[in-house]
Amino acid sequence: MNLLSIGGSDPSSGAGIQSDVKTFDSLNAHGLTVITAITGQNTSSFGMIEPVSQKILKNQINLVMSDFKIDGIKIGMVYNSEIIKAIYRELKNTKITIVVDPIIKSTTGGLLIEKNAINDFKKLIIPLATVITPNKFEAEFLSKIKINSVKSLEKAAQKIQKMGAKKVVITGIETKNGQISDFILEEENQYTISGRKILKTNHGSGCNYSASLLFSLATGNKLKDAVKFSKQFTVNSIKNSKNLGRGISITQVQRKDNIFVELSNAINEFIEIKNIYENIPECQTNFVFSKNNPKSIKDILGVAGRIVKTGNKVTLAGSLSYGGSKHVATAVITVNKKFPEIRSGINFKYNKKTISNLKKIGCIISSYDRNTEPKGLKNTEGSSVGWGVKYAIKNLEEPPDVIYHEGDFGKEAMIIIFGNTPTNIIEKISKLHI
Prior knowledge:
- This protein is of the alpha/beta class.
- The protein folds into two domains: 2-256, UDP-N-acetylmuramoyl-L-alanine:D-glutamate ligase (3-Layer(aba) Sandwich), CATH 3.40.1190.20; 262-431, Class II aldolase/adducin N-terminal domain (L-fuculose-1-phosphate Aldolase, 3-Layer(aba) Sandwich).
- The chain is 36% helix and 24% strand.
- The protein has helices spanning 16-26, 54-67, 81-91, 118-125, 136-143, 150-162, 205-218, 223-239, 258-272, 327-338, 352-360, 375-378, 383-393, 422-431, and strands at 2-9, 30-41, 46-51, 72-75, 98-100, 131-132, 167-174, 179-185, 190-196, 202-203, 249-250, 287-290, 300-310, 313-322, 344-349, 365-367, 402-405, 414-419.
- A nine-stranded mixed beta sheet has the order 3-2-1-4-5-6-7-8-9, sandwiched between helices. Strands 14-13-12-15-18-17-16 form a seven-stranded mixed beta sheet, with helices on both faces.
- Helix 4 (118-125) links the parallel strand 5 (98-100) and strand 6 (131-132).
- The chain is elongated, with a radius of gyration of 25 Å.
- The protein starts with a strand and ends with a helix.
- 44% of the residues are buried.
């Protein structure tokens, strides 16, 4: 995946394009850059700004976009009207997802856009936005509405949306219960996503948020799931921030492997599938993704906890870790030995209708009878899954999509859906809910 950051250079690497490249790299995306301005700043103070010429700005954009397939674009610091107009001319006809992070001022105090460029920013840059991500101060600055209530928050978001942005995410809204909320306004609905406030002044969290949001959107996630992903990503970057200079701390992003990123995104999608809670078994659900050629459950990423049913909703109760799953991971290892392309699995509540629907969408289905399981294995914790799955696939010439059993005394009936990747599994599950 190639993601392009258009913005200013921060020599402290706390924010700006340097921060974006670090974020993209941590998510295994290739970061491309177009520099709009060079700033002088460190963790304590802000110095000078030297904007680039329209000529070199246009040259950067043209050369990057003519050579690479760009999957997403982030626009950050634009500084003056000349830069704004040049960016607009080059991107006005693009169909690529664009996240606009309206950079108004630096954490260290510098004003990052000329006052006489604000109107051009509203008229030309905001309409390019698939999503715009102002914090509370930036939303007030752009909308000229003081945000001090839910109603004023909604009005500010609506006003920004009327400037041309398809979707608006206002970040960093503090609530009375000590949480930080993000207010999301889409084309036809609005909602809030909240999280715990971290009392730590930092440099870079805004860039971490918008860059990770772009990544999540570019992978195909809906905005709600992308916001959840970015919120957690940013919280982690703040928690890991370090005092590297003499001033405020700089956020730190930790590299995520592709397995982690894809499984995390798939779990977010799974949780949002309509009525999915009906398919969560009594023992709850785990969702796993394996490294190539797994030797043990330590080579398989799963939920250390479970994906659980809470009323008519589903939530993630636990964190992703290698070795986090035992039973579903064991099933994947067993199938993988015969069919190496199978690297992911999820367990479902058993019922005949689900099996029937899986057959209708063309799944290869096999089963085993736990009543025929050798007594020695029944008394050995964790052995049943490996035995049953091995029995179910012994005569298969193609990899299974589904393996199930109808239970035994004290043992819940279960379905396991397999796939090459978590995304492949979500595709199969989604067909059941059309």
